[in-house]
User: What shape does this take?
Amino acid sequence: MLVGVPIVISDGAKPGIHAAGGLEWNFTRNFAAFVLVGVEVFPTAQSTATVKYEKVIFVPSLGLQARL
Assistant: This one.
């Protein structure tokens, strides 16, 4: 599970909320791969006409992780 605060900088900083869940495969003690599926919500995002609306973005992630 992953929770974060993405920040969009457009006419000032606009924070959002990021939440995701997924799987991690540990190949060795120092090397792993992961798959996450999540969403980001930006309740203060503005369109080009400066009308406030809530923006929801689907965010899939795939990655490799190396540890010392």
In short: The mean pLDDT is 84. Strands lie at 2-4, 7-9, 13-15, 17-28, 31-42, 55-66.
